[in-house]
Amino acid sequence: MTPIRIRGSAVSSVLAVLALLLVAWLVWPTLRSWRVKVDTTPRAVTARGDLADDEKTTIAVFEQASPSVAYITTTARAVNAWTRNVMEVPRGSGSGFVWDDAGHVVTNVHVVAGAQSAIVRLSGEREFAAVPVGFSPEHDIAVLKITVPVDPPPPLPIGTSADLRVGQKVYAIGNPFGLDRTLTTGIISAIDRTIESPAGRSIERVIQTDAAINPGNSGGPLLDSAGRLIGMNTAIYSSSGSSAGVGFAVPVDTVNRIVPKLIAEGKYARPVLGINADDRISDQLLESVGLEGVPVLGINPDGAAARAGMEAAKIGRDGNVELGDVIRSVDGEKVANLDDLTDVLDRREVGQAVDIVVWRDGREVTLKATLAAPAD
Questions:
Q1: At what angle do helices 338-346 and 279-287 cross, to 10 degrees?
Q2: What is the pTM of this model?
Q3: What is the tens place of the pLDDT at every residue in 195-251?
Q4: What three-state secondary structure class fits 27?
Q5: Cα–chain-centroid distance for residue 121?
Q6: What order do you get walking across the sheet with 86-98 strand by strand?
Q7: How does pLDDT run across 292-316, given as a tens digit for each residue?
Q8: CA–CA gap between residue 125 and residue 70 (Å, rounded)
């Protein structure tokens, strides 16, 4: 048998490792006692100081207004395909705000259109069944009514939209995506915009804002820094369906004009002249004469225009259309198209006398007309 020989260097290495292990075993308790201890107590809070003035304003506006903002949910009837049973299913949700001490709540028509019932939820998780009062699809304004027996919420203070300025700070409160009483802030990005209502009519003088307006904000209030209502959030411009920084609100001057009539009569009746007009035909007729205005294409023989002596277009002997009167202004307000005329009349009352300037046979003629209610 051949003996195993262990070299001296290997023995030295083994002895060195054993020596290190022995030293580590002997000094480990001492090393543990030298370990740095970490302080696990909470850190002291740094004093914040007073809130900035604009933060105080934002908080004050929200705290004052939010109890008057409503969360509206609607239901519709559906038929079970298997049992044929009729049941109510959730249809949608939106926002609204308390209008007066009588329990009237204002929202958008498109929030409640087609619904069988609506529930209005106020602060404190209080829910009330809402009764429809009146609708104006032309303005996308609807009025509901609730009965609050105890501690009714205060109505929002009313401002004006006539003196709004681009750059003015605004606050929107609503229920986007069902998240109730959400506050967003921004500025007025533009004024005097025009959008289309659910009835396909133009809503004039609309406020544009970059405050985030999302689905569910519709019908909620747009407020100024004094906490006054200056508009009702109604639409967004977005390819995705969510806020893209372009939201629109019906101006409060329109809301304040329409809502009392909806409460009193259940509907809004815009005063009319009793004429027929069409922008597509108007453009063709006016192109040759280089005019702006609304050509009168037809006249109701019992209407305000007929009584004022207005003249309509007619077919000449050669078969071509001959211009009659072209409406140029109403009470000094320029009328360039049918939307302008509709907007001017919308701000008048049934029975009100107006001065109408028409272009007739190469000159301007002033007629006085008394506006009438639309025929039923």
A1: 120
A2: 0.77
A3: 887 767 788 889 999 998 888 888 999 999 999 999 999 977 655 555 567 889 999
A4: helix
A5: 19
A6: 126-129, 117-122, 69-79, 86-98, 104-107, 141-145, 131-136
A7: 899 999 999 999 999 999 999 888 7
A8: 10
The kind and range of the H/E element at 10 are helix 8-34
Burial 287-308 (b: 16+ CB within 10 A, else e): eeeeeebbbbbebbeebbbbbb
Per-position DSSP letters for 216-229, written without gaps between them: T-TT-EEE-TTS-E
Residue 90's contacts (CB-CB under 8 Å, 6 or more residues apart) are 73, 74, 75
Query: Residue type at 257?
Result: R
| Alpha-carbon distances, residue 15 vs 19, 22, 27 (angstroms) | 6, 10, 18
Q: Is 110 a catalytic residue?
A: yes
User: What gap in Å lies between CA 205 and CA 198, rounded to an integer?
Assistant: 16
Here the tokens at position 312 are 């309509």
Which residues partner with 224 through β-bridges?
A: none
Q: Which two tokens stand for residue 361?
A: 């046979």
Q: Half-sphere exposure (CA, 13 Å, Cβ side) for 178?
A: 5
Write the single-letter amino acid at 82.
W
Active-site residue, selected from the candidate residues 93, 139, 140, 224: 140
Write down the catalytic residue from 95, 202, 218, 243.
218
Give me the amino acid identity at 271: P
User: Per the residue annotation, which of 110, 197, 329, 346 is the catalytic one?
Assistant: 110
